[in-house]
Amino acid sequence: VWSGLHPECEYIFQLEREEQRCLREITEHKNLSTSGCFPVWDSVVCWPKAAVGDTVHSPCPAVFSLFSNTTGTVSRNCTSAGWSQPFPPYHEACSVEDDIPEASGAEKIHSHDSYFSTVKLIYSIGYGASLISLMVAVAILLSFRRLRCARNYIHIQLFFSFILKAASVFIKDATLFASQDTNHCSLSTAACKASVVFCHYCVMSNFSWLLMEAVYLNFLLVSALPRTRRCLWGFALLGWGVPLVFIILWIGSRMYFEDMECWDINEDSPYWWTIKGPIVVSIGVNFMLFMNIIRILIQKLNPRLIQFNNSAQYRRLTKSTLLLIPLFGTHYVVFNFLPDDSSVNLRFCIELCLGSFQGLIVAVLYCFLNQEVQSEVQMQWLRWLESSYGVVPAAAKGSQMDTPF
After folding, report:
1. Taking the CB of residue 190, how many other CB atoms lie within 10 A of it?
2. pLDDT digits (tens, 9 = 90+) for 130-152
3. How far is Cα 85 from Cα 246, in angstroms, rounded to an integer?
């Protein structure tokens, strides 16, 4: 089990072993000045030395057994001009037409590479913008004493989880995709596995703090939440500790049962649910809490049995709903309960491209556009003007009086 290979990588290692053996034979025969066809490696089969006029028959390579149970034979003629083309073609003789790409598949591969490069560029920009904005938002919330409250404490933890998530994505990309020639099937270093583990932990922690935000807001709306240090420590323990427990369980299962490559391939792995399961549950619970908060907001907007008499109430409800979507990660519900292989391209766009800007949106909505934050920053700016110049402009005084605090 410790030296096991993922099925997607098994055929690569088999071909590499055959290629190395064939290259040794080619080197040995090159030193001999004999006529005929020299050994040749055609990326699939190693054809031995043969005399002109001979027909060499070779069974389908053992690597094809990974794609089909059918066995066949491929032949080549040794002519005065060299080896002929294989007949019948590999995909016909070995019955793997659907699995072995034709030469025209190069265009599809190039198209996919271009698509993934574009996706990577977009989410790199998104995570970079989120990282910078979140660091500024955390610095603002920690700098002003009047902003240090339980609500902002929860916000700071959420912002920090977004920061770690963005940083972990950059670290993982730098480790796994440092070069286009990187062989992911042989990349099995401690640094590579550590980057994958750190990325999974940061993602789980981010979803955990999205859940903490939803729980805290529900408590505030439903009942009076005790604002004690014990309560805040409980949120911190749940937000950072629960993901740590599941990530440790996943590390143990990978080490003892699926220690393959860099731990970045999780298809058809039952142990992947150690990480995916809690995330799916948190998204589902978050969505239910989101709907409950919307129900409460509707009731609080108009206590007369939800009778909307003007468009202002609709605007307030719509604004509240839109503000809660990025805070609770409600957009993840779109693909939460679907199989991993369904709508892959659309999933990439939503989870990677759109999701990478979530931290930026949260920082803007819950820090930069927050009236309390704006008032505190403005007052600090006025104090600086007064201490620096001794006089505050009349326009500044007017804006100070007009700003609610």
Report:
1. 7
2. 999 999 999 999 988 888 888 88
3. 54
